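Exercise 7b. Backbone tokens:
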């Protein structure tokens, strides 16, 4: 509670507000290391217990299948202790950055305390819930206390758009949404963009757009005219306006992509939905991949995919449905990979610095084309 009050004072909050759920980051041993593990075990041993439904961000490995994926033994031992500490505190081990595909779906207007920038963006923008960009410790403190400082995106005043983004390009693929997000995030930083010129987009498109904007910039909320739930509340007519053209998107695609030959195709950043796994299985049915492929998702979505036979189809083609982790928070640089192919603007942003990877960025079909015989 002291941590929450201090944060509230720093941001000028006048009060605390009760929350419906928390999403806690800082779950991968790769991200938090020995100091983070010691902190979590200490807090759990002192009796901290969550007061609201609490879900967890991805871990550094598939919690069931880590040996087959080549995760080092010393890493796995510490990763399991981190999950055990969270579970002792009462968190649910969803272990995903898309908790909204795994049972944690806030209502319109509901106050929550979520960490994980892509999930924050989705909760605020697509679901119309209200959260600031929490860090791991502040989200955990909010989970234990059941409240969070009421400022920023919890207030109507913090949810107004600050810049209009006119999209003058047709968005033909999920990678286009990622490139758009990457391009806009760099230009608007922590602003609240109001998009026009996007006539249609599904949840997975918006997930990709928001994740990339939060990675290249610090966008935690955006509106899309006639598509997102709070867009109708706002007029962007008087705002500063920027345009994004096909040339901007092509330039972003080129900037994010290397000419190197990928050793691994890795999809599912943010974690894949069932629809995305279905689409992949359709493309792979009866074919054979010449390099490894992972599609990362939650254990809950993997179970649904397995029940539909989709996991078998992907495995028969030589791919793997990897649960609980992703290409960025798992130790792939210790597993022998140096170059990954991705269709995610967020993954393309983080893989070079966080995982020492070269990156090939492109549309799913283009990535698969070279890997399918
Ligand atoms: Fe999720 Fe990992 Fe991407 S946590 S948003 S899949 S970098």
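Sequence design result:
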């Amino acid at each position: 509670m002291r941590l929450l009050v201090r944060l509230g004072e720093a941001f000028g909050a006048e009060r605390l507000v009760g929350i419906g759920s928390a999403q806690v980051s800082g779950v991968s041993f790769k991200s938090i290391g020995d100091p983070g593990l010691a902190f979590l075990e200490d807090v759990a041993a002192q009796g901290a217990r969550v007061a609201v439904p609490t879900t967890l961000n991805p871990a550094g490995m598939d919690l069931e299948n880590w040996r087959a994926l080549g995760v080092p033994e010393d890493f796995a031992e510490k990763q399991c202790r981190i999950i055990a500490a969270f579970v002792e505190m009462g968190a649910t081990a969803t272990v995903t950055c898309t908790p909204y595909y795994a049972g944690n779906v806030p209502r319109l207007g509901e106050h929550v305390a979520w960490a994980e920038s892509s999930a924050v963006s989705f909760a605020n923008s697509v679901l119309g819930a209200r959260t600031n960009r929490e860090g791991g410790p502040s989200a955990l403190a909010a989970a234990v206390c059941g409240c969070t400082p009421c400022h920023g995106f919890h207030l109507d005043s913090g949810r107004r758009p600050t810049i209009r983004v006119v999209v003058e390009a047709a968005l033909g693929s999920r990678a286009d949404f990622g490139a758009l997000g990457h391009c806009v995030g760099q230009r608007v930083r922590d602003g609240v963009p109001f998009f026009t010129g996007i006539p249609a987009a599904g949840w997975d498109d918006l997930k990709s757009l928001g994740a990339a904007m939060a990675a290249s910039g610090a966008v935690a909320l955006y509106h899309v005219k006639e598509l997102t739930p709070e867009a109708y509340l706002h007029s962007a007519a008087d705002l500063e306006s920027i345009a994004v053209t096909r040339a901007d998107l092509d330039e972003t695609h080129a900037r994010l992509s290397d000419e190197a030959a990928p050793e691994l195709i890795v999809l599912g950043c943010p974690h894949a939905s069932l629809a995305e796994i279905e689409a992949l299985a359709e493309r792979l049915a009866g074919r054979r991949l010449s390099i490894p492929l992972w599609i990362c998702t939650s254990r809950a979505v993997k179970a649904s995919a397995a029940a539909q036979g989709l996991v078998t189809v992907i495995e028969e083609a030589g791919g793997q449905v990897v649960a609980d982790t992703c290409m960025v928070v798992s130790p792939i640089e210790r597993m022998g990979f140096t170059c990954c192919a991705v269709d995610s603007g967020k993954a393309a942003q983080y893989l070079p610095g966080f995982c020492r990877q070269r990156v090939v960025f492109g549309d799913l079909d283009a990535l698969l084309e070279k890997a399918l015989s």
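Instructor comment: The two ends are 57 Å apart (CA to CA). The chain is about 40% helix and 15% strand.
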